[in-house]
């Protein structure tokens, strides 16, 4: 049925009046002329369906590459320190140090990067955002805990072996990345998950949160690359034990360099996903900053 004085039919369901994403818009009899014009402008600016499908296919290709590269990074660092460096322990010995690169690569790079692109998955668009926010926070917490345990491993090993702490550029970058990560997580939970946080605060924090997210990933990659080089230079010296020097590029050096390449490739794919505006969650776009659900009141 029609509303009195309205030339357009009313919507038969709230799903037609209020689509799940900004990509579809229906003109309802209850909306004002300005709202109808705004919806019409957005509809005309929406790319054609083949372009959207191609964009989604490219996204999932990048996302699959991200997952594969992340798994390859974790496998590579585990093989390196289990096969060439003697394995793992927690007794203050060099075997305890071996936990440091494994946990830092896994937590500060791989889990962090996968958690960062979680909001870009198209299947999450149009759904309740709260569960995905909780999953995002949980993944970041796992990454933070792994990073802190990795730092504890190297500090305990250095103290047990009377090795100075925090003297290299690698250690400075790693500490800075972990400290910023911890601060980012605390402010993220306080600003985006607490019910008492106002929307104005979320609008203020969001660009800062996004910028620091990318910055932390870049610092993490820089820390891992410098740490890989540092480890290879320290261990592959061509000494009396028969170890070939790094300059000869023995198999261990090839594996270490390959790990560095995989980490850089993983980071580039993650940054590609994060920087593409077509892959942003619709309610994360500037014109859709407020993601509170609209309420349809039927006056029939």
TrEMBL record:
SMART domains per record: B561
Name of the protein in its database record: Lysosomal membrane ascorbate-dependent ferrireductase CYB561A3
Top-rank taxon: Eukaryota
Lineage: Eukaryota, Metazoa, Chordata, Craniata, Vertebrata
Start and end residues of each Cytochrome b561 domain: 65-275
GO terms for cellular component: late endosome membrane; lysosomal membrane
Statement: the UniProt record of this protein carries the keyword Heme: yes
Cofactor(s) required, per the database record: heme b
Membrane topology according to the record: Multi-pass membrane protein
Any single Pfam family the record assigns to this protein: Cytochrom_B561
Record field: catalytic activity: Fe(3+)(out) + L-ascorbate(in) = monodehydro-L-ascorbate radical(in) + Fe(2+)(out) + H(+)
Transmembrane segments: 57-82, 102-122, 134-155, 175-196, 208-228, 254-275
Molecular-function annotations in GO: metal ion binding; transmembrane ascorbate ferrireductase activity
Subcellular location: Late endosome membrane; Lysosome membrane
KW Transport (keyword) present: yes
Entry function: Transmembrane reductase that uses ascorbate as an electron donor in the cytoplasm and transfers electrons across membranes to reduce iron cations Fe(3+) into Fe(2+) in the lumen of the late endosome and lysosome. Reduced iron can then be extruded from the late endosome and lysosome to the cytoplasm by divalent metal-specific transporters. It is therefore most probably involved in endosomal and lysosomal cellular iron homeostasis.
């Amino acid at each position: 049925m029609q509303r009195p004085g309205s030339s357009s039919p009313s919507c038969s369901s709230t799903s037609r009046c209020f689509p799940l994403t900004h990509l579809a818009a229906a003109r309802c009899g209850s909306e004002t002329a300005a709202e109808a014009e705004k919806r019409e402008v957005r509809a005309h600016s929406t790319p054609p369906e083949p372009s959207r499908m191609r964009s989604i296919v490219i996204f999932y290709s990048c996302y699959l590459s991200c997952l594969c590269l992340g798994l390859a990074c974790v496998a590579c660092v585990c093989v390196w320190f289990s096969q060439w460096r003697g394995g793992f322990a927690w007794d203050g010995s060099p075997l305890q140090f071996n936990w440091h690169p494994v946990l830092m690569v896994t937590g500060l790079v791989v889990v962090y990067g996968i958690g960062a692109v979680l909001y870009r998955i198209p299947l999450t668009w149009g759904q309740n955002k709260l569960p995905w926010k909780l999953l995002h926070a949980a993944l970041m917490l796992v990454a933070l805990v792994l990073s802190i345990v990795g730092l504890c491993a190297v500090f305990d090993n250095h103290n047990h072996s009377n090795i100075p702490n925090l003297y290299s550029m690698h250690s400075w970058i790693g500490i800075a990345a972990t400290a910023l990560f911890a601060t980012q997580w605390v402010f993220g939970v306080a600003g985006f998950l607490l019910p008492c946080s106002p929307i104005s605060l979320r609008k203020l924090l969001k660009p800062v949160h996004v910028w620091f997210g990318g910055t932390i990933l870049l610092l993490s990659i820089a820390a891992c690359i410098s740490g890989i080089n540092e480890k290879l230079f320290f261990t592959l010296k061509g000494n009396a034990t028969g170890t070939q020097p790094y300059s000869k590029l023995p198999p261990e050096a090839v594996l270490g360099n390959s790990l560095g390449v995989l980490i850089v490739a993983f980071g580039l794919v993650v940054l590609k996903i994060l920087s593409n505006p077509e892959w942003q969650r619709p309610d994360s776009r500037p014109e859709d900053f407020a993601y509170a659900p609209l309420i349809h009141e039927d006056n029939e």
